[in-house]
Amino acid sequence: MTTSVKPPTWFWVVSVIALLWNLMGVGNYLNQAFNQMTLLESMDQAQREVFEGIPAWATAAFAIAVFSGALASIALLLRKKWSRPLFVISLIAAVAQFIHWLFISNAVKAFGPSTYAMPAIIIIIGIYLVFFSKKGIEKGWLT
């Protein structure tokens, strides 16, 4: 028989924020996947070339990152320890996507140096969520 420890209130706050954050990522992915023409119309030629040159593996990494992050956040709210491997998968997929975006494509040249900001924020939050779920397991909040 396993006993679980009741998590503190801040655990729930962080878990809800994590879910909202990851749902925004899902929304961004769906917008990019299903609203390409509108996005392309708002870009200059260099930006369009970068966007149109995104390979299938980078798009797949984007999908894996946001959907596994959203599932991991739901797992947190359900107090399940399988949230951690899903957060790890999400982080690895995000890193793969950003390696292409920042270092293989011409995104920084086309969009400017501010292109580094959002990937850095996403990676930092991803690392935090991996460690947050690990702490939840160690404290007995996740079973």
Write the layout of secondary structure elements.
Elements: H1 9-34, H2 36-41, H3 45-52, H4 56-77, H5 83-104, H6 107-111, H7 117-139
Describe the structure.
This protein is 78% helix and 0% strand. It is built from seven helices and no strands. With 143 residues, it is an all-alpha fold. The longest helix has 26 residues. The model has no long low-confidence stretch (mean pLDDT 94). The radius of gyration is 17 Å and the shape is elongated.
Strand residue percentage: under 5%
SS summary, helix count? 7
Helix content: over 70%
pLDDT under 50 segments (min length 5)? none
**What shape does the CA trace take?**
elongated
**Helix/strand order:** HHHHHHH
Q: Could you tell me the mean pLDDT? A: 94
Q: Major beta sheet, specifics?
A: none
Brief digest:
This protein is an all-alpha fold. The chain has helices at residues 9-34, 36-41, 45-52, 56-77, 83-104, 107-111, 117-139. The longest helix is centred in the N-terminal third of the chain and has 26 residues, at 9-34.
